[in-house]
Amino acid sequence: MQIEDSYQKIFIDNRKWVEQKKKENPDFFHHLAHVQNPDYLYIGCSDSRVHANEIMGLEPGEVFVHRNIANMVVNNDLNILSVINYAVEHLNVKYIIICGHYNCGGIKAAMEPRDLGILNPWLRNIRDVYRLHEQELDVITDDNKRYNRLVEINVYEQCLNVIKTAEVQKSYLEKGYPRVAGWVYDLNEGVLIDLKIDFKKELNRIRKIYDLTKGE
């Protein structure tokens, strides 16, 4: 199929999708246009093989989504900080989920000591995660296992970065939500793996240094 034909096919398939949705529920788009009340903020990787709604089994409107290379929460990235702020203060999400995935290109690139141009500043954040956990990672002799373990550790560190934010701390102490969870998606099996991060324990530990709820 030519590139132009492939592009035009998107609009043809879109019309088919619309008709199918209307057949299943005549009010589907009316409802969708007027309601956004998700319980979840999903922060995932930009990888084209991983889509939040599908892997979570949720419909449009049920999950607020932000994606970037290697599902990072960088403390000077106004894009993701704005997403977290909106999700917590305006959508009142109950969970913020960091979801990484095995076979992540961003994680793999960060493990290779190469100059990748404009990607360098972004990958530096992942390399910093490796540096913090290098003792554990360096004893893993199998390259693939070390790669997958860094995927998991990176999810954990990004969960901590979410917990460090003022919005999350204040909202949880006032309302009991959102909670922060860390997942990994296994591309080979199609399953989600809960890393079972102890949110309350990590919150209490984080607040010893990053408590942003005082002075009010």
Describe the protein in words.
The chain has 216 residues and is of the alpha/beta class. Helices cover 52% and strands 14% of the residues. It contains ten helices and five strands. Strands 2-1-3-4-5 form a five-stranded mixed beta sheet. The chain is globular, with a radius of gyration of 19 Å. The N and C termini lie far apart (61 Å). The mean pLDDT is 94.
List keywords for this structure.
alpha/beta, 216 residues, globular, 5 strands, 10 helices
Percent strand: 5-15%
Distance between the termini: 61 Å
Helix fraction, binned, reads 40-55%
* C-alpha Rg (nearest Å): 19 Å
Please tell me what the overall shape is.
globular
SSE inventory with pairings:
Blueprint (H helix, E strand, L loop, with lengths): L2 H22 L3 H7 L5 E6 L6 H5 L6 E6 L9 H12 L5 E7 L3 H6 L9 H13 L1 H5 L4 H21 L2 H10 L3 E8 L4 E4 L4 H12 L6
Parallel strand pairs: 1-2, 1-3, 3-4
Antiparallel strand pairs: 4-5
Short description:
The protein is an alpha/beta fold.
